[in-house]
């Protein structure tokens, strides 16, 4: 479970977007933004860990939000999260196709997208063990790459390899370590949030873990420090070895793989095939993200169907315990979204992708609110905190802090639509499209079923297996 969460968080956000973050805000600004997001993620994962060990269910967020807040809120959170990861499948298919074009520039895109969709579908059709095993190996590849990068980078900084020691000359070049002021740090803050999305997969997998009361707390305890270690050290190394105003860092497009900060550093030390190696690593990252997206969204859709919030046929399981109808529907939606990228210069696809980015933060917001309400309901119903299998520290500061930061990111999404030339309304609309979609699900369900926010005494905090 630790590897699933690590694999979900380490990907193109670190291998590509970290360079843009340093270029925009300087190495100090990038470190500050990623550190604050890391703290927020720690509180979110511990909040989720407390609920998931007490009530381990597959597709957790929808159930927790329904039981501890309001059934309509749970309905909206569930469909929001399903949409988030279903669109991620489409995004990863597009990215994998672009990566393969690096080696096979004249090959047809549809060939690679069909192949990778078949691989993701096959891994998820096997069983939850097949998904877990594949994610383990995907994560191992990424983790080894980051560790090698950090070790090589530190040796370059102190001058053992790659020539003369660089010290802090690049880290403080120009107006570094902080560059561009508050707004640029806010922009990096949002980008960092996207990079960390996927850490909540530990909660999704809890319901299918062999021993959630032991495995979930163990994963929660280690994941924060490991992710922070990988991200903070990697960004520090990049900031020490490459000046923030180097134009190569500004390129974060997956098509420009030769400009990955990892590639630049490896080439500096004389690894001639660095671009091809990083291309292969990023391909595994993309497949890992798509694989995780298919697993998470399928389980969420299955839970929604089981709770009567999605068509009943989607609740069926195969002999291996795989929700095949939900899996096929998720794969079909991802494929349709991917095909949308070929029409109208991909405008529909870009809107879908923007809505997906917002959905991830809304899901995190839902985790923070659900945990706050769970703890209140747990105590209001006469239970003792000492009986919790795992207890999140820093309550209520943790979920409140996470909620505030998530809200800041959600509200600040479209700040770059405002400029001296006026407001770019299309960009503004694309940035916030996820909010009205969420509200339609939430308020529509509330209006139809006349649901109300539950009082702490009314919340259902029994383990689902006890029902």
Structural class: mainly alpha
What is the rounded distance between the termini? 27 Å
Biggest beta-sheet profile:
2 strands, antiparallel
Number of helices: 16
**Average residue-wise pLDDT:** 84
For the biggest β-sheet, the strand order reads 1-2
Strand content: under 5%
Unreliable runs, pLDDT <50, ≥5 residues? none
State the helicity in percent bands.
55-70%
Order of helices and strands: HHHHHHHHHHHHHHEEHH
- Based on CA atoms alone, the radius of gyration comes out at 22 Å
Please characterize this protein's 3D structure.
There is one protein chain. This protein has 467 residues and is mostly helical. Strands 1-2 form a two-stranded antiparallel sheet. The longest helix is centred in the N-terminal third of the chain and has 43 residues. The model has no long low-confidence stretch (mean pLDDT 84).
Question: Which features would summarize this protein structure in a list?
Answer:
two-stranded antiparallel ribbon, 467 residues, globular, mainly alpha, single chain, 2 strands
Can you give me a brief rundown of this structure?
The chain has 467 residues and is mainly α.
Topology:
Blueprint: H1 2-9, H2 12-54, H3 60-68, H4 71-103, H5 109-126, H6 128-157, H7 181-196, H8 201-206, H9 212-241, H10 261-268, H11 274-306, H12 324-340, H13 347-380, H14 397-412, E1 418-419, E2 422-423, H15 425-432, H16 434-449
Antiparallel strand pairs: 1-2
Helix pairs in contact: 1-6, 1-9, 2-7, 2-9, 2-13, 2-14, 3-4, 3-13, 4-5, 4-11, 4-12, 4-13, 4-16, 5-6, 5-11, 5-12, 6-9, 6-11, 10-11, 11-12, 12-13, 13-14, 13-16
């Amino acid at each position: 479970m630790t590897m699933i969460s690590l694999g979900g968080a380490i990907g193109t956000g670190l291998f590509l977007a970290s360079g843009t973050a340093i270029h925009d805000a300087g190495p100090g600004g990038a470190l500050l933004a990623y550190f604050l997001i890391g703290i927020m993620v720690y509180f979110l994962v511990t909040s989720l860990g407390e609920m998931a060990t007490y009530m381990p269910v597959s597709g957790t967020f929808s159930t927790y939000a329904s039981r501890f807040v309001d059934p309509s809120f749970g309905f909206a959170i569930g469909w929001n999260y399903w949409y988030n990861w279903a669109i991620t499948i489409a995004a990863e298919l597009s990215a994998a196709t672009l990566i393969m074009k690096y080696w096979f520039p004249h090959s047809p895109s549809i060939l690679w997208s069909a192949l990778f969709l078949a691989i993701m579908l096959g891994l998820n059709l096997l069983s939850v063990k097949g998904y877990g095993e594949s994610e383990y190996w995907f994560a191992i590849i990424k983790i080894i790459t980051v560790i090698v990068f950090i070790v090589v980078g530190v040796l370059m900084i102190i001058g053992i390899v790659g020539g003369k020691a660089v010290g802090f000359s690049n880290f403080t070049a120009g107006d570094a370590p902080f560059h561009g002021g508050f707004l640029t740090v806010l922009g990096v803050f949002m980008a960092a949030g996207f990079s960390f999305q996927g850490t909540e997969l530990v909660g999704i997998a809890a319901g299918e873990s062999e021993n959630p009361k032991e495995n979930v707390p163990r994963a929660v305890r280690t994941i924060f420090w490991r992710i922070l270690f990988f991200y903070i050290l990697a960004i520090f190394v990049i900031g020490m070895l490459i000046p923030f105003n180097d134009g190569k860092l500004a390129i974060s497009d997956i098509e420009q793989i030769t400009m990955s900060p990892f590639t630049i550093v490896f080439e500096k030390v004389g690894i001639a095939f660095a671009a091809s190696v990083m291309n292969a690593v990023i391909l595994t990252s993309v497949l890992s993200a798509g694989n995780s997206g298919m697993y998470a969204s399928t389980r969420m859709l299955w839970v929604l169907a089981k709770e009567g919030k999605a068509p009943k046929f989607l609740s069926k399981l195969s002999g291996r315990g795989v929700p095949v109808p939900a899996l096929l529907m998720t794969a079909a939606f991802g494929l349709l979204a991917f095909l949308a990228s070929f029409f109208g210069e991909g405008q529909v696809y870009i809107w879908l992708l923007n809505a997906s980015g917002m959905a991830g933060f809304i899901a995190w917001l839902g985790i923070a609110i659900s945990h706050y309400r769970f703890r209140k309901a747990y105590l209001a119903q006469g239970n003792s905190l000492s009986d919790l299998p795992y207890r999140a520290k820093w309550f209520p500061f943790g979920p409140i802090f996470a909620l505030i930061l998530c809200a800041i990111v959600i509200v600040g999404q479209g700040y770059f639509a405002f400029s001296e030339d006026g407001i770019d309304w299309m960009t503004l609309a694309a940035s916030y499209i996820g909010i009205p979609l969420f509200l339609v699900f939430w308020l529509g369900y509330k209006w139809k079923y006349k649901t109300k926010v539950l009082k702490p005494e009314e919340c259902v905090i029994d383990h689902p297996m006890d029902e």
